[in-house]
Amino acid sequence: MNGGRWRRSGKRLVASMTLALLFLAPGGAWGVESLKFKPAFNLFKMQQDVQLGKENAEQIDKELPLVTDPQVLRYINDLGRRLASFAPNNNSEYAWTFKVMNSSDINAFALPGGYIYVNRGAIMAAENEAQIAGVMAHESGHVVMRHGTHAVSQALLAQAPLAILGGILGQTGSITAQLAEMGLGLGVNSILLKNSRSAESQADEVGTYILYQAGYDPHAMAQFFEIIEKKYPQKTIQFFADHPVPENRIKDVDSEIPRLGPAKEWKTNSPEFEATKERLLSLPAPPTATPAPPASASSSGPPPVPSSRLIKFEGKGFSIDYPDNWQMQQNEDAVAFIPPGGIVEDAESGSTQAYGTSISRFQPQSSRQGNWGLVDATQELLDTMRLSNPNLRVIKQGGMKLEGRAALSTLLETDSPLQGQKERDLLVTTRQSNSLFSLIFIAPESLFDAYKPTFDAMLQSLELQ
Ligand SMILES: [Zn+2]
């Protein structure tokens, strides 16, 4: 459910729906004005894109393995900067720094301000220079259209509008730290890198434009995405989780190309590209990390049955057991336990949890007065959730004990992000110091009973400090 979206706990889920409607990036149809390439709504100054990108790049460089071979880096940076010089909306302050991740997975991502990472696996999978240039041009599109800070802006408005009006982002110091203080954790798997389908379409448009201007076959970008999706499904899971495939990608790209100008003698390959591939082949094999299966793999059919083997999760002020075939995702103040395929990707509202459990803390307005009641605070939380789940309905509510504490159990019905289905949610709330500790157990209505034993086992394992 939207209220259970793991990265939006409590108050922050409020405005997401409205904002999605107001600030949807231009996508889909490419009209005559398509070449104007207008970035969507953004709260950040362009210089803050660069700073935010730099801060997160430093973190990523520390955490993830990089290829350090000078020949490979020289090639990728020469190519990247050449492409970027044709980017619309470019700015001389952008860093345009290209790094190669030492991973055989096929992936690439862009941080705000021009910090672009291309996986070794993506270079190896490209059949020619135009294809890898296509990926890099697409990532450059995310940079110049400022999709990362656009997503952060939306999340901020949803959760801390007053803080923004107060000008918190105007201060000096680490932007990442300021955002973390507002409950918005960034990093490798954060909203900085998760693009909506409309952002994808726009990055496709810009990428195609850059390829054309740089003299490459502009079909190469969409072709590459299509090839890797079919040929290497296992190695592209993360790429397509962060870059959801826009509807009609190939068709849209093909129809943009004639509008860019006359067909040319396209460049497709270079000896330097082939030499770079050779060079990569000669380097030691990438470390074989076994990445956790992404929870957001686009699901066809329901997730596998929850495992009865449980793993303990130690959170801030609590611990809980969860099935060992579920994935844990966590940010500053929310944690979600998600079965494989339990997240549904939607063009407008992004990722929504359709199965699993979400735990967060909610700060009721009434807590400002110090003395507040569980029932009123839970009602306040429900009102907040209703803003993004307008059809949310309470089926029944009753008192219960949770580790000896007074708790409230609320059974809810709402629309499932799975098309045409209803969703059932069990919300359990209790007081923990001055906030409302809440667990939401989520499943489509038709499967809720099947999930109930797992939910009960999780609830029984809960320990609160
Ligand atoms: Zn993308």
Explain how this protein is built:
By secondary structure, the chain is α+β, with helices and mostly antiparallel strands. It has helices spanning 16-23, 46-63, 70-84, 120-125, 129-144, 147-159, 161-165, 175-181, 197-214, 220-231, 237-242, 249-260, 271-282, 374-388, 448-461; strands at 97-101, 108-111, 115-119, 310-315, 318-323, 327-330, 334-338, 343-346, 350-353, 356-362, 393-402, 405-415, 422-432, 435-444, 463-464. The strands form 4 sheets. It has a 7-stranded antiparallel beta sheet. A hairpin with a 2-residue loop joins strand 11 and strand 12 (405-415). It is elongated. The site of zinc ion has 6 residues, from helix 5 and helix 9.
Question: What are the key terms here?
Answer:
single chain; 465 residues; alpha+beta; seven-stranded antiparallel beta sheet; three-stranded mixed beta sheet; 15 strands; 38% helix; elongated; binds zinc ion
* Uncertain parts: 4-34, 290-299
Q: What small molecules does this complex bind?
A: zinc ion
Bin the strand percentage. Answer: 15-25%
What is the averaged pLDDT score?
Answer: 83
Order of helices and strands: HHHEEEHHHHHHHHHHEEEEEEEHEEEEHE
Which range best describes the helical content: under 10%, 10-25%, 25-40%, 40-55%, 55-70% or over 70%?
Answer: 25-40%
Instruction: Work out the oligomeric state of the chains in this entry.
Output: single chain
Number of strands: 15
Report the major sheet.
Answer: 7 strands, antiparallel
Strand order of the largest sheet: 6-7-10-14-13-12-11
